[in-house]
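Onboarding guide, step 5: your first structure request.
Type a short instruction followed by the sequence, for example:

Predict the 3D structure of this protein.
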Amino acid sequence: MVDITQKDFFEYFKNLKADTIVEDDPKSYKYVLYARRSTKDKDKQEKSLPDQIDECLNFARKEKLIVIEPYIQEKESAKDPDIRPKFRKMIEDVKAGKYQGILAWHPNRLARNMKEAGEIIDLLDKGIIKDLKFPSFSFENNESGKVMLGITFVLSKQYSDALSKDVKRGLHKRAEEGGWLTVPKHGYFKDDMHRLQPDGDNYVLIREAWKMRFEGAIYREIEEYLNTHNFTKPVTNKINQRKPYSFDQKRLSEMFSDPIYAGVMRYGDKVINLMEIFDFVPVVSPAHFFKINNITKKNRESFLRRYDKRVKKNVKGRLLNGRVICDHCGETMYVSITSPSKGNKFYFRCDNKKCSFKNISGKKVQHHVRARVLVDFVVDFLKNTNIATKEVYEHYVEESKRVQKDRLALLRVEQKSIVTQKAGLNQQNIKIKKYLLDISDRELREDYESELKENRKKLKEFESALIEIEKQIENNKSSILTFSKFTEQVKKLPDEIVKTKSLSRKNYLIEKIFSNLRVNNKKVAKYQLEEPFATFEKKGFFSDCRRDRTRTCDLAHPMRAR
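The system replies with C-alpha cells like these:
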C-alpha cells in the first residue's frame, strides 16, 4: 500500500482540477464584423463602410481576434427598430451560436434606438453575446461596461432625435427663404436655391390653362389642351432631362386650388408670400384665383378648410389608404371629401377611366362609395363574428410577452443610465463640499453653493424618475389581459369604431383587422383580413355570433376574398 499524506492527497486533486478545467478563452471567440452607414440620417460625419471595415480589421489583427467572413455591410438607419434585415439576421445567427462576439466601429453602428439597444444588452446579460469589440470605444463585458454601453446607446438615440429636429429646422428655414421642398409645381423648375422659376413653354401652357379656366372652360377641355400640346416635367431638379406628363381631372382640380400659382406658398403651419422674398413669377393674379375658386368674403374660411393641403393629406393617409379596391377593375379607390355644402362627407371613388362600372340604366359612370358604408360593414362583421376565441387569445398572449420583454429591457437600460448619472452627481457633490471647506473667496463660494444646490435638485429629479421606472416595471409585469378582459375589450371594438371622433383612431382599429375591402356597386363585395386573422379565419377559429357559438365560421363565405 502506498504511504501518502493528507497534504499530498489534497495537492493531487488540486492539480487534477486545474488540469481538467477548460477556461472560456476570448481568443477563441468567433466575431462577426458589422458595418453600417445610413443614407437617411444624413450622418455624413460618420465613417464610410470601407473605412469602418479597415479600422475594424486593423483592430482585430492587433487584438488577435477571429473574424468570420463575409463581413456584414448595411446601408440603413438605426433610428427606428426592426427595419434592418441584415442586422436582424446577424442577431439570429449569434443566438444560433454561429458567432460569439460582434465587432463594430462604434456602438452607434449597432443601435440608435432603445429597443435594439436593450436587446443587445439583454443578450450580453444572458451570455448569448459573449463579447463586443469596438476600435473607437472601450468596452469590457462586466457590469460597469454594460452601464457605459447603455449610456452610449442613450446618447446615440439623443443624437438621432436631435438630428431629426435639425433636419426639420433646416427645411423650415429653407421654406421661409422661398425654397420649395418637393417636386416642382407644374410649369416651374427649381433653381440652385430650390426656388420655383418659370419652365419655358411649360409655364406658358400652364398659364394658358388657368386663363381657360377663368374664361369658363371645363376640366375636359383643359385636360385635352394640355395633353395635346406635349407638356413635360423635369426629372428631379435637372431641367435638361424631361419626361412626358399627362393631366386628368383630379390633377387639374388640385392645381386650380393651389394658391402657390398666385404667389402664396403653404408649408406646414407657415404661409409664405413668395413675391416678397424673390422675383417669383405667378401664373395667375389673386383676383383671378379667387374668381376661379368662387371665393367670396363669406365662404373664404370654408375654402381654406377644404383645400388646406395638410387636411387633404391626413384624409388620404388616415382613412383606409390603399385598402379600398374597385371590384370592377381591381384598381385602388381614391379617398376624397365632399364640399362643405354637402356636409364634408368622406367617400371613395375609382379614377380608372377604363373601369367597366355601369349604373342601373347601363350607363358608364364613375364608381364611388361612401366611407360610411365601409365602416358599417366592418362594424357589422365585428358584431356578428366572435374573434375573441382561445386561439386568438393565445396569439395575443405570445405577442404581448414579446412586447413585455422588449419593454422591460428598455426600462432596465434607462434605469441603469439614471443610476450611473446619479452616482456621478453624488461624487461631484462630495468634491464640491471638500472645496467649500477651503474656499474663502465669497463670490467663488456662492458659485459652488449654487452648483451644489442645482445638483441636489437634479438628484431629486433622478429619484422621482427611478420611482416612476419602478412603477412602469411593475405595471409591465401585469400588462397582459386575462382572457375575460381580452374578450370584453374585443366586444367593445364595434362601438369604439362607431363612437370615436378621431379619424386616425378609427382607421387604426380597422386596419389592424382588415387588409382590404373590395367594393361593387356601392357595397362591400369581398374582404381580406390582416394576419394573423386571415389564417385564423381560414382554420375556422372564429365563431359566428348569429349561430351556435360552438360552430366555426363558414369558410365558403361568399364575401371572403380569394
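Each response can be followed by summary notes, for example: The longest helix spans residues 390-438.
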